[in-house]
């Protein structure tokens, strides 16, 4: 509650002046025009991302997680595509029922159970919270109750596994490919609905963007914050639940499968569950902070977020656990400790860096970073309605070391997940390769946007903090 009031005060302090006259259309936020490279990337992803997910999951199902063997089989004529496809499990009524129940249950938790965690967990910020100012000058309110949804879901999961036995805890693994078809149906349905909604009944027309290119708009979204009713926010729902709540359940299902197959859960599987569990729990503990991240503050809702949250995230972020079902790696004590340390140090950097920015922004710089008053660069920007806002870019703490040191911590944690799987196959290393591309691209994307937003003030900031990810190197 106190944090909420503090944030409101800080926003009022920031919101200093309104310009008279006609509203000016500002350029920050996602692109208005599409260059050929962006269009080519969009077309590539639309065509190949679903195939990439299928290829990885099929490789585990039919080739013990080897990414090379299916290619060799195909290129040497040993197998035809039709052979592989014919061996692929189809959509089943059971999977459709499980998936529908799962999504409906998360909708109920999201919409109908207002947050009670913030009433009794000290330091947790939940309940109704405000997002950042959108390019059109709107401040949305969100019902933050993800931690509660995560806790209820997991309590029920363990209650079922150890007491009720309604279904097997291996249910997710056992239906993994049929569930993939369900996730794809939802991912495409929600992205298509978001596109139609953007044209015909947008939540906030002033925050819509049309490039005139169908594929770009479908992929990157038209609406900024599509909603149904007052509280069903597409971005917050689809990213957090079913996407991120599912992450830890999927890993638990993999652990249960190892137990069933080998009579034990390996140290590597425990490490994956613990390290990714910390990351997921951190997300829900800090869900109010998430409202200030790029996903919510800057990205529009299209296929990238809609399909990505339903398919890409649950299927490819959990590859290590899936791999360990097929290859139960037992790590030695030194490797376990080394990987755990790497994961925890990465998490520490990720969390502290994000916390420093959050604290700095919430208190408008009236805080201590590493025991001292933070240093910063004053900057200003304008929203579409012509209102001028003032903000600050911090140059202290980890934000003085590099412009995206939070990404560096995230990458260290990602590497730790992959290392749990040993070095026999490349499949589990997909995650670190993907995260490196994603976060490096995000650096450039964010910096381009910040430059459009802050202009010469951003230049002053990059001169003060010249490196992006690794001080002295990049
Ligand atoms: P940030 O949290 O770094 O947010 C970037 C924004 O912060 C900028 O657009 C700017 O916004 C503001 N900002 C930039 N520099 C400063 C500064 N020096 N002082 C104050 N504010 C500043 O980025 P993300 O939202 O991308 O990432 C959040 C976290 O989520 C990261 O730790 C990242 O690793 C993680 N992440 C994980 C992903 C995954 O798939 N696992 C995917 C993406 C992110 P403004 O306009 O407000 O000034």
UniProtKB/TrEMBL annotation:
Membrane topology category: Multi-pass membrane protein
GO cellular component, one term: endoplasmic reticulum membrane
Signal peptide bounds: none
Entry-linked Pfam families: ERG4_ERG24 (PF01222)
Catalysis: reaction(s): 7-dehydrodesmosterol + NADPH + H(+) = desmosterol + NADP(+); cholesterol + NADP(+) = 7-dehydrocholesterol + NADPH + H(+)
Residue ranges, annotated region (Disordered): 1-24
Transmembrane segments: 36-57, 91-113, 147-164, 176-196, 301-319, 331-350, 414-439
Compartments in which it is found: Endoplasmic reticulum membrane
A GO BP annotation: cholesterol biosynthetic process
GO terms for MF: 7-dehydrocholesterol reductase activity
Sequence ranges of Basic and acidic residues compositional bias: 1-15
Alphabetically ordered keywords of this record: Cholesterol biosynthesis, Cholesterol metabolism, Endoplasmic reticulum, Lipid biosynthesis, Lipid metabolism, Membrane, NADP, Oxidoreductase, Steroid biosynthesis, Steroid metabolism, Sterol biosynthesis, Sterol metabolism, Transmembrane, Transmembrane helix
Associated pathway: Steroid biosynthesis; cholesterol biosynthesis
Major localization listed first in the record, in broad terms: endoplasmic reticulum
EC number(s) recorded for this UniProt protein: 1.3.1.21
The protein's role, per its UniProt record: Catalyzes the last step of the cholesterol synthesis pathway, which transforms cholesta-5,7-dien-3beta-ol (7-dehydrocholesterol,7-DHC) into cholesterol by reducing the C7-C8 double bond of its sterol core. Can also metabolize cholesta-5,7,24-trien-3beta-ol (7-dehydrodemosterol, 7-DHD) to desmosterol, which is then metabolized by the Delta(24)-sterol reductase (DHCR24) to cholesterol.
Similarity field: Belongs to the ERG4/ERG24 family.
Record-linked PANTHER family: 7-DEHYDROCHOLESTEROL REDUCTASE, DELTA(14)-STEROL REDUCTASE
Protein name: 7-dehydrocholesterol reductase
Chain's gene name: Dhcr7
């Amino acid at each position: 509650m106190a944090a909420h009031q503090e944030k409101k005060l800080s926003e009022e302090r920031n919101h200093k002046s309104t310009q008279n006259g006609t509203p000016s259309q500002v350029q920050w936020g996602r692109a208005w025009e599409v260059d050929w490279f962006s269009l080519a990337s969009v077309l590539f992803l639309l065509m190949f991302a679903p195939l990439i997910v299928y290829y990885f999951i099929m490789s585990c199902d039919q080739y013990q997680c080897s990414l090379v063997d299916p290619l060799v089989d195909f290129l040497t004529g040993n197998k035809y595509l039709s052979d592989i496809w014919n061996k692929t499990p189809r959509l089943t009524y059971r999977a459709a029922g499980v998936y529908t129940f799962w999504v409906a249950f998360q909708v109920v938790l999201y919409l109908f159970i207002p947050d009670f965690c913030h009433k009794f967990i000290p330091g947790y910020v939940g309940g109704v919270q405000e997002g950042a100012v959108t390019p059109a000058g709107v401040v949305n309110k969100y019902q933050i109750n993800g931690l509660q949804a995560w806790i209820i879901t997991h309590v029920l999961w363990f209650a079922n596994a150890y007491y009720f036995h309604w279904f097997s805890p291996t249910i997710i693994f056992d239906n993994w490919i049929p569930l993939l078809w369900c996730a794809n149906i939802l991912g495409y349905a929600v992205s298509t609905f978001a596109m139609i909604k953007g044209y015909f009944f947008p939540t906030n027309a002033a925050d819509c963007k049309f490039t005139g290119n169908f594929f770009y708009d479908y992929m990157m979204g038209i609406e900024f914050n599509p909603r149904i009713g007052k509280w069903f926010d597409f971005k917050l729902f689809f990213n957090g639940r079913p996407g991120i709540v599912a992450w830890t359940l999927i890993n638990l299902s993999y652990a249960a499968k190892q137990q069933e197959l080998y009579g034990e859960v390996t140290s590597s599987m425990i490490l994956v569950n613990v390290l990714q569990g910390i990351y997921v729990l951190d997300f829900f503990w800090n869900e109010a902070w998430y409202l200030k991240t790029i996903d919510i503050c800057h990205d529009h809702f299209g296929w990238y977020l809609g399909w990505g949250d339903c398919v890409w995230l649950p299927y490819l972020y959990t590859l290590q656990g899936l791999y360990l079902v097929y290859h139960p790696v037992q790590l030695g004590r030194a490797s376990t400790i080394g990987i755990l340390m790497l994961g925890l140090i990465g998490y520490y950097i990720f969390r502290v860096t994000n916390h420093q920015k959050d604290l700095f922004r919430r208190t408008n710089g009236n805080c201590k970073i590493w025991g001292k008053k933070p240093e910063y660069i004053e900057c200003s920007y304008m929203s579409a309605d012509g209102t001028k806002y003032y903000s600050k870019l911090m140059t202290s703490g980890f934000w003085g070391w590099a412009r995206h040191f939070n990404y560096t911590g995230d990458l260290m944690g990602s590497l730790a997940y992959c290392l749990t799987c040993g070095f026999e196959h490349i499949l589990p290393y997909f995650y670190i390769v993907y995260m490196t591309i994603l976060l490096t691209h995000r650096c450039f994307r964010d910096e381009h946007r910040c430059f459009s937003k802050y202009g010469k003030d951003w230049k002053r900031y990059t001169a003060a903090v010249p490196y992006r990810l690794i001080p002295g190197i990049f």
